[in-house]
Amino acid sequence: MAKDETISEKTVAEENAAGAEATDEAVEGRVEEVAADDLMPLLEDARAKADEHWNQLLRVKADMENTRRRAKQDVENAHKFALEKFALELLPIKDSLEMGLTAADGVTENSDATAQLKEGTALTLKMLTTALEKFGIEAVDPIGDTFDPDKHQAMSIQESADHKPNTVIAVMQKGYQLNERLLRPAMVVVSKAVAEKTSDSESGNHINEQA
């Protein structure tokens, strides 16, 4: 009898332990489910903040790169165009030398003084031209080119049967550019098509009809 009671007590204890274990597993499962539900919003919020911070980092990096590029360009422009005002002061001197040479070509008197003056002026002009080119200052001499309003200033328009319309047929004053940036435009004469002339009879008929 005592042995049966011991077996029964053991069985009851085992059943209770199994029940308790099952209960613990159910409770743990419920806790995990609740914890997962609570963590999802936190994870989504953390992911959103991480994406926002990443995008901010990319924008800051792009801004820094643009700033660096602009600063580099500003420095390059400062080096390239530091002589702009100085160059503008030199150009009239070069113009005067060129006009002096042109005037000397028109002198008919063949004297040694005239030849020496012309030779000296030509040499001075050559030295000045070389110095200007050394610093990136180049002449714009567009004779025969198509008129370009960005580089040329039209001083006169003349009819010409020998040139296409809108062609530079004469240069009154050369233009200049500094490292491909225009310092001053070239003053030019531009061609246009020759106007068709009407005959006297057609003109008279036209007048009579109007009368």
Overall geometric form = elongated
CATH superfamily of the domain at 84-192: Head domain of nucleotide exchange factor GrpE
- Give the CATH level 1 class of the domain at 84-192: Mainly Beta
Kindly report the CATH topology of the domain at 84-192: Nucleotide Exchange Factor Grpe, Chain A, domain 2
Q: What do the pLDDT scores average to?
A: 77
How many DSSP H or I helices? 4
CATH architectural group of the domain at 84-192: Roll
Strand order of the largest sheet: 1-4-5
Give me the strand/helix succession: HHHEEEEEEH
Low-confidence stretches: 206-211
Helix content, binned percent: 55-70%
Q: Work out the strand percent.
A: 15-25%
Distance between the termini: 155 Å
Cα-atom radius of gyration: 47 Å
Largest sheet: 3 strands, antiparallel
Would you tell me the structural class of the helices and strands? alpha+beta
Tell me the total number of β-strands: 6
Task: State the gist of this model.
The protein is an alpha+beta fold and 211 residues long.
3D structure, described in words:
It is a single chain. The protein is an alpha+beta fold and 211 residues long. The protein has a domain at 84-192: Head domain of nucleotide exchange factor GrpE (Nucleotide Exchange Factor Grpe, Chain A, domain 2), CATH 2.30.22.10. It has four helices and six strands, in the order αααββββββα. The strands form two sheets. The protein has a three-stranded antiparallel beta sheet with strand order 1-4-5. The protein has a three-stranded mixed beta sheet with strand order 2-6-3, with no helix packed on it. Helix 2 packs antiparallel against helix 3 (112-134). It is elongated. The termini are far apart. Residues 206-211 have low confidence and may be disordered.
